[in-house]
Specification:
Blueprint (H helix, E strand, L loop, with lengths): L9 H13 L2 H8 L4 H9 L2 H31 L3 H8 L4 H4 L8 E5 L7 E4 L2 H17 L3 H21 L1
Antiparallel strand pairs: 1-2
Length: 165
């Protein structure tokens, strides 16, 4: 394990990426190419620079997921339902033209009786409430989820340090 001026080697960076994705230090160490992954995973987790990199990756992953969720709620709250209505009134079947419809706002489509169609949409008010909740969390700083995530990383760090001693 190289420690050149506090920089991580490519294998150490790979371990951090794999660990951030799986949460399993043994699997991450094995996939990163370490011999004796059971030992290497715990040793790597005991290093501050490794934990810092994992924390950075978790934060990045959380921000990306949060941005995607926010965009999805915006699309539900403000998106068009024109394609769903077009589907309702056109005589062609969904399977014939399914790829050209934007049905993001649709929660469920049913055909209860011959010739009938029932379309249920996601709740726009709930989506607006979620957007408001996201905005309030941004005003406060970090969310409770992020705080729990950081606490979990700190616990893992302390647990791996306990195992080493």
């Amino acid at each position: 394990m190289s420690r050149k001026n506090g920089k991580l080697s490519l294998r150490e960076k790979r371990f951090c990426e794999l660990y951030a994705a799986s949460g399993d230090p043994v699997r991450a160490a094995a996939a990163a190419g370490y011999e004796a992954p059971e030992k290497a995973g715990n040793v790597l987790l005991s290093r501050d620079e490794i934990n810092s990199e994992i924390g950075r990756l978790y934060e990045k992953r959380f921000r990306n997921a949060r941005q995607r969720a926010y965009a999805g709620y915006e699309k539900i709250a403000f998106g068009s339902v024109n394609d769903a209505v077009r589907l309702l009134f056109e005589n062609e079947s969904f399977s014939e033209n399914g790829g050209s419809y934007d049905l993001f706002n649709v929660a469920e489509i049913k055909r209860p009786k011959e010739g009938a169609m029932e379309i249920k949409f996601f709740d726009r008010l709930k989506a607006l409430e979620k957007l408001e909740q996201y905005d309030r969390e941004d005003e406060k700083g970090s969310s409770d989820f992020y705080k729990a995530l950081v606490g979990g990383i700190q616990n893992l760090k302390s647990e791996s340090g306990d195992k080493e001693e």
